[in-house]
Amino acid sequence: MDVHPARIGVGEPIPGVVYPEPSRLAGYIEDNILGFKSLAEALRESFARNAGRLALAGPQGEVTYAELDEITDRLAIAFLRLGARPLDRVMFQIANCNEVICAILACIKAQLIPVCTLAAHREQEIGYLARHASARLHIISGADAKFDDLAFARGMQRHAPSLRHIVQAQGEGKPDAPSFADLMKSVSAAEARQEIDRLRYDPFQVVLFQLSGGTTGVPKIIPHFHNASLLTMQATADWYDYRAGDRIFNPLPMLHNLNMSCFYGPALLRGATFIVAPNVLPDTLVSAFKTYRPTWSFLSGPIIARIEGAVRDGTIDFRDARGIVAPNNAPGLRAMLGAPVYHQYGMTEGTLTGTREGDPGEAIDFTVGRPFIPSSRVRIMQPGTEEEIEGEDMGESVVDGPYTCPGYFDAVDRNREAFTSDGAYRTGDLVRRRVIDGMPHFVFCGRIKDVVDRGGEKINSEEVEWACNAHPSIAATAVIGMPDAAYGERVCAFIIPRDDQTAPSVTELGQFLKTHGLAKFKWPERVEAVTEFPVTRSGKLLKAELRRIIREKLAGVSGDLDPKEARPRSKPSVELNRA
């Protein structure tokens, strides 16, 4: 392992990056929270320690840690020989596959900075972010049957002149766009290892450019740092007690922070096997669960809806599962899957909370837990102010800690809005404390802007969605405000029923919510049964589209839902509950 000098703080600052204050870093180091080891060094140590174990498994085949180490060594040096330089930024445009993980790891080893764009991103996102980050390398699939990503990448070079190099992860190499296979042939394992061994890593330097998860506009760039990212991955592995024998599965995009920081990143540090699924089609998901029997999985509403039939008919089961991580509905999922289910909450800007084995049942079922890293601080403030709220009243969560981003990349104006005067991040989420067995836990209540204004009563959509999702016939719910002449807005619930179930009527849902204890004025007054929700390219729910759909239906503009937006499942229930 490299021996680092006692310097605290980055050695070579990147213009536009907001780095943590050295005094704050010194406190974390003194308290043994942060250290002088980089993520690259920790990964290399794990690869050597677990050389004979299985690192990746899935339809593409199996890859051991030793093989993964060699592949990523050779790619790392090939990227540098191609013309990339340490701290250059790298655009990604590739769907889930083994090559995604190999490319991310190669960049980390080569001191290149991945910009975590997605395969579905197009001109608006790729062009803007490539220019904004001054990216030099563009990694594409090269084998996308539905999209000519090579022609697209060549076009992007005209719009973002800094993009000097194109690399195809899976495609046939071209003179101006070599493939991974071409690059690996250009450097031997031995010489790649020698050159990697000569590199020195700065633990305070940027390791990744992650992206904000907003549903509108172009994402903002969120710098993540080597030692802070390592801390979060290690803390996640500790929180869930990931082990070398675990089989860990998250089918969501591998470039998402959730997957990287909480699933395959920690898995690779612990010597576990990460299961790679190339898509989220029902057959692919069912095959992955049946073949590899994950011990840990992440399941959200849309994924659950695609495997529920296979669970109910016994095609797959979760008898080997040590835990399921989900954003909500632990009691319902536990009953359906017969496995422990733990809530997790967080944001790419930093701070993760969750529940785990041994927590009180009340915390597991009804909260999103507490911070994985004890030094992370969650305060609750009156939205738009720095006035802290005590007790259990609801307010905006404001977070800071060793993993919290101190500022977006090259975004001075946005940073003034998004961060408090003492550098904490305003999440835009509504939460409240819930003290259980003397320990504060947190309850996620929704987004500040995600409310229905029913005659002056502000109804938080997330609260209603959580209550509806507990109904035995409902797989997922999206609540929006629909226009109403008398009240301004009424509550409308778009519902995905469970397999072989029908959505409850407004009356039936109201009776259920009454037993659930939800105030009557919050009950949905219209139910639209659909098979899927409209989402962004990165998988975020598009409530703006749902609002447009319901406006047009109410106005008589559209008799049916656009199948590309929200597909109807059964006749909607349109009766109204009168409060």
How is this structure best summarized?
By secondary structure, this protein is α/β, with parallel strands linked by helices. It is built from 18 helices and 24 strands.
Explain how this protein is built.
It is built from 18 helices and 24 strands. It is globular. It is 34% helix and 21% strand. Among the domains are: 38-50 and 61-225, Rossmann fold, CATH 3.40.50; 450-555, GMP Synthetase, Chain A, domain 3 (2-Layer Sandwich). By secondary structure, the protein is α/β, with parallel strands linked by helices. Strand 9 (247-249), helix 10 and strand 10 form a beta-alpha-beta unit.
Structural shape: globular
Strand content is 15-25%
Write the CATH architecture name of the domain at 38-50 and 61-225.
3-Layer(aba) Sandwich
CATH topology of the domain at 38-50 and 61-225: Rossmann fold
Please write the CATH class name of the domain at 38-50 and 61-225. Alpha Beta
**Beginning-to-end CA distance, first to last residue:** 67 Å
Sheet with most strands: strand arrangement: 2-1-10-9-11-12-13-14-15
Major β-sheet, in short? Answer: 9 strands, mixed
Class based on secondary structure composition and strand pairing: alpha/beta
What count of helical segments does DSSP give? Answer: 18
Residue stretches low in confidence (pLDDT < 50, at least 5 long) are 558-579
